[in-house]
Amino acid sequence: MAKKSLFNPEPHIPQNGKWPERLTDIQAAAFINTTPSTIRISRTTGKLWGVTAPHFIKIGSRVFYELEDLELWIKNNTTKQISTADSAFC
């Protein structure tokens, strides 16, 4: 694992804003804004936040997530809500 530096205190988050096509579990967790332990548990349970966990691949003992799969997982499991609280006060 990369060491933290003054220039990039979060080495698992790309400085240039471009994610690799294949992410480690630490990078995948950062990408979907969760912890590495949560994403690791989701591989065992098959669920993440109450929905089917994102697909992953194993190469030997290493686990990876395809960026395209994570983007699709986010798209398919995101709901947009409009708060009605503001309209109640109008």
3D architecture notes:
It comes from Thiomicrospira aerophila AL3. This is Transcriptional regulator. This protein has a domain at 22-76. The chain is an alpha+beta fold and 90 residues long. The strands form 2 sheets. A 3-stranded antiparallel sheet has the order 1-5-4. 34% of the residues lie in helices and 17% in strands. The longest helix is centred in the middle third of the chain and has 10 residues, at 36-45. Residues 4-9 have low confidence and may be disordered. It has 4 helices and 5 strands, in the order E-H-H-E-E-E-E-H-H.
A few lines on this structure:
It comes from Thiomicrospira aerophila AL3. This is Transcriptional regulator. The protein is of the alpha+beta class and 90 residues long.
Spell out the blueprint of helices and strands.
Layout: E1 22-24, H1 25-31, H2 36-45, E2 47-48, E3 51-52, E4 57-59, E5 62-66, H3 67-76, H4 85-88
Antiparallel strand pairs: 1-5, 2-3, 4-5
